[in-house]
Design brief:
This protein is an alpha+beta fold. It has 10 helices and 4 strands; from the N terminus they run ααααββααααββαα.
Amino acid sequence: MNNSYFNKVKPVMTSPKAGSIAFRLAPLALALMVVGCAVGPDYHRPAVTMPTEFKEAKGWTAAAPKENQTKGDWWAVYQDPQLSSLMSQVQISNQNVAQYAAQYREAQALVTQARAELFPQVTATVDSTRSGTATTTSNQHSAELGASWELDIWGKLRRTEEEQKANAQASAADLANATLSAQSELAQDYFQLRVMDAQIALYEQSIQAYQRYLTVIQNQYTGGNTSRATLAQAQTQLESTKASALQLQWERAQLEHAIAILIGRPPAQFSLAAEPIKFTLPAIPAGLPSQLLQRRPDIAAAERTMASANAAVGVATAAYYPDITLSASGGFSSSVLHNLFSLPNRVWSLGPELSQTVLDFGATRGKVAEAAATYDADVASYRQTVLTAMGEVEDYLVELRVIDSQMVAQKNAADSAKESARVTYNQYQAGMIDYLDVATTENTSLTQQQSVLSLLSTQMVTSVKLIAALGGGWQAPDEK
């Protein structure tokens, strides 16, 4: 047991006699504390079965860490200055993060309170009263200094401090998890918005082309060179594309509002101008399960919560044993104020106090059982958190690998569709085919190009989810 704090404790000297007794009792109190032990189980982190590598990590190449990258700024790998600027505002202005930060400060204050219980509590009292009966009146004045010290023989106070420390560490992990979650959500929303900008731009290009087609066909219809059905088909194609573009605009607005809230700003006071895609998809390493355990804040929070529950078992167990408190007080008491601090008016008291519940009809046993059950539940929650984390990483790894192959195939399909639309339109201008064929191939080309952008959005969002699932960033803990 660590008893270094005893070196700071000084006996209260209220009078020569009281001081002498306190001085003689102090070594006894110290000896009782030294031989005392903290009841309840000592904490050992429960074992969790961990594979040596992720199953879906086969074929992945670990990316070398960039030495010029700010540690912890995992979003810098996307090389998007606008994203980095937004990310820097999350910790400062996000209100969910601010809430967890306040809760962490609260947990730290509880640790301070628990630690203070290990030391003597000193109080000072100054009192002046006037009382009387029908025939007499009297005054009483006093000034006293008192001290009390609960001897932590059974470790109740130390276990309480241990419990609060673990709670504070869990709260710090909760803060880190809230920050990472907000950053992850912002990055996902940002990438979806930027891809949506590209989709809207693609629709605008198509609308301009379809408007030109409609103008040509309108002239042909006026001149009697084409049918009403062909004109209707061209109008349908144009209006349908406009409708799709309008839907993307309100979806983009909602993403913009979500980003504003994540950085703690009213949506009405925030906007992101449309820009072409600047971000790049980073090479993401698979990471190792052992590193995952050390990086993910939700796993750290679950483990510290489990440690706190283990300490709580010791606190509950200590109730089986008596509390021993040493107390001393000294001062002056007199009926005459101007003579209060004279030697004959001094008073003092010194003595130990032992208290214990004799009969509680199983209440203490029930509290110990409750604390033990809470610990068992936290162990299960910790193990489930680890399993869930492992599953998330496996899911995102396989999704990214499949999307990578899917993207190649989709780009090839989009290129073929564009070529088909070009050839078909040339054939239409040569009078070889009807406009219906042009409309069909143009719609196919637009759909294929939009599919490429949709896949890009999914790919970027999944890459962010993988980084978050790995705890933010991908450097091993000893590299940070």
